[in-house]
Amino acid sequence: MAKTKLHLHESKDGWFSYRRRVPAKLQALLDKTEVKHAYKTKNKVQALKLHAIYHEKVEKEFAAAKAYLKGVAYQAGTLKYQTPSKMHKDVYASLNQQGLLPHQIPMPNSTMSDVDQMAW
Fold first, then answer.
1. How far is Cα 5 from Cα 55, in angstroms, rounded to an integer?
2. How far from 65 is each of 6, 10, 29, 52, 73, CA to CA, in Å?
3. Which of 44, 84, 99, 104 has the highest count of CB atoms within 10 angstroms of its CB?
4. Radius of gyration of the chain from its Cα atoms, rounded to whole angstroms
5. CA neighbor of 79 nearest in space, from 103, 54, 60
6. Once rounded to an integer, what is the mean pLDDT over residues 21-30?
7. What Å distances lie between residue 43 and 3, 15, 19, CA to CA?
8. Residue 112: left (phi > 0), alpha (psi -120 to 50), or beta?
9. How far is it, in rounded angstroms, from Cα 47 to Cα 43?
């Protein structure tokens, strides 16, 4: 709980809010330097409950951004990492199971007309 309360801010008027700096590596991706959220309450107990929920949401957002920067897949809800090479192997194995090789998969071609590409 002590770590969660770290980003809880109380204004001079007694209003509670969330305030946290975005890590430098994630700022360009998230397009912000700071996360701010007003809890719109002066009640500390209510603010702590809201804070725990919002803090978890921010942590998930940061985890997803970090995973994206590392070039790995992220599935919403749970952190499930899969490297691009692992994804490639899985796709190749799936195609191989169907009796296909990647070069046998039909793909839209630049030589196709627009009508043919739309029909494809």
1. 9
2. 21, 28, 7, 20, 11
3. 44
4. 23
5. 60
6. 89
7. 20, 8, 17
8. beta
9. 6
> 44 or 68: whose pLDDT is higher?
44
Q: Where are the domains of the chain?
A: 4-70, 83-120
How is residue 65 written in tokens?
């951004």
What mean pLDDT value characterizes the chain? Answer: 79
How far is residue 76's CA from residue 89's CA, in Å, rounded to a whole number? 22
pLDDT of residue 65: 86
In angstroms, what CA-CA distances link 4 with 17, 55, 90?
A: 13, 7, 38
Question: Contact, 54 vs 37, CB < 8 A?
Answer: yes
CB 57 within 8 A of CB 50: no
